Amino acid sequence: MGLYRQDGTRITKAAFPAAALDDPPVRITEDVYVSEPYGRGDGQPEGSKRFLLYPAGTIVARSAVGRLFTSASIDSISPAKGPAAGGTTITIKGADLDGVSAVTLGGAAGTDLHIRSATELTVRTPPGAAGAVPVELADDSGAVSKAEGFTYETTAGS
């Protein structure tokens, strides 16, 4: 058996056209599935079906695994204002929110985090000083922040 270039010249083992990569292979240790919503629907996780993405034993490049964990993004926060005492349940809409593990407002942790879908989550605001604060989401890909994403008011509705 021989290997050849497009122009017909033979390729030797020493001259094989490949480059070393800093992307080590990893072995998948258990079956990994991907979830997709049924049809258009509401995007809720309950309305989804799962497909086998990688069976156990599959070898893939580490970068391929990294691409599976996309960073969340924030499109909107509603309501955008609430009392400095905290306790406002806000809805954050965006993309890839189903991997969010924590939400902070001005550095303080929000409570009662509920992932509604890949595009929506709710969280209760902690107490904060009056003024606009950044809203930060933590997920497997790192953190994403919306500067001045929520404004604490001295009294509700001010």
TrEMBL record:
InterPro entries per record: Ig-like_fold (IPR013783), Ig_E-set (IPR014756), IPT_dom (IPR002909)
Domain of life, source organism: Bacteria
Stored SUPFAM superfamilies: E set domains
Pfam families to which the protein is assigned, alphabetical: TIG
Segments forming domain IPT/TIG: 71-153
One of the GO BP terms on file: carbohydrate metabolic process
Gene3D superfamilies listed in its UniProt record: Immunoglobulins
Protein name: IPT/TIG domain-containing protein
